[in-house]
Design goal:
The chain is mainly α and 173 residues long. It has a single domain (3-170), classed as CDP-alcohol phosphotransferase transmembrane (TM) domain (Four Helix Bundle (Hemerythrin (Met), subunit A)). The chain is built from 6 helices and no strands. It has helices at residues 6-26, 30-53, 59-82, 90-105, 117-135, 142-170. Helix 1 (6-26) packs parallel to helix 3 (59-82) and helix 3 (59-82) packs across helix 5 (117-135). It is flat, with a radius of gyration of 16 Å. The chain starts with 5 loop residues before the first helix and ends with a helix.
């Protein structure tokens, strides 16, 4: 292993972290799940920084980073849906939106990803909703807070759908 591979290893670790987070949330192991989301956020921040610092930025690394984010939040949010904290509509919409983003950018052919502003904000909001959804369960306010989480999830269903439609119609404008 070379030091230039470290950013991709960090990105790839989020695939496993997503599966672990799904299982922990499904079994209501909230403390452990909050540690996993913290590590996932740290790895997301560290992989980009290290890729730039080590001069290891590549289209493949960008695709790995973004797909790891999509898989992580989709799996973690699926856990929250299994707990009936958020709607089941959001996790599949994230996969649809990411797949469309990847295909429109032609990332599968080695081109760099082209994010939209709304897509960027949604990506951040998926992590925020995930962190709040897990962290709130550790508080005495989780019952009332879950209604706010549900509203936030439905809001993201709307903005994710809007992002999908915007990307689909961009070529006709």
């Amino acid at each position: 292993m070379t030091t230039k591979q470290i950013p991709n290893i960090l990105s790839g670790s989020r695939y496993l972290a997503g599966l672990v987070c799904l299982l922990l949330v499904w079994h209501a192991c909230w403390v452990a799940a909050s540690v996993v989301i913290g590590l996932a956020v740290f790895s997301d921040l560290a992989d980009g920084y290290l890729a730039r610092r080590l001069n290891a930025v590549s289209p493949l690394g960008g695709l790995l980073d973004h797909s790891a984010d999509a898989v992580f939040v989709t799996l973690a949010l699926t856990g929250l849906a299994l707990q009936a904290i958020i709607t089941w509509w959001l996790p599949p919409l994230i996969i649809i939106a990411f797949s469309q983003y990847m295909l429109d950018s032609r990332a599968h052919r080695g081109y760099p990803l082209r994010a939209s502003q709304l897509g960027r904000y949604n990506g951040i909001a998926y992590y925020v909703l995930t962190a709040l959804g897990i962290g709130l369960q550790l508080t005495p306010f989780h019952e009332s807070g879950n209604a706010c989480l549900s509203f936030g999830a439905w809001l993201l269903v709307g903005t994710t759908t809007l992002s999908i439609v915007d990307r689909a119609t961009a070529r006709f404008r």
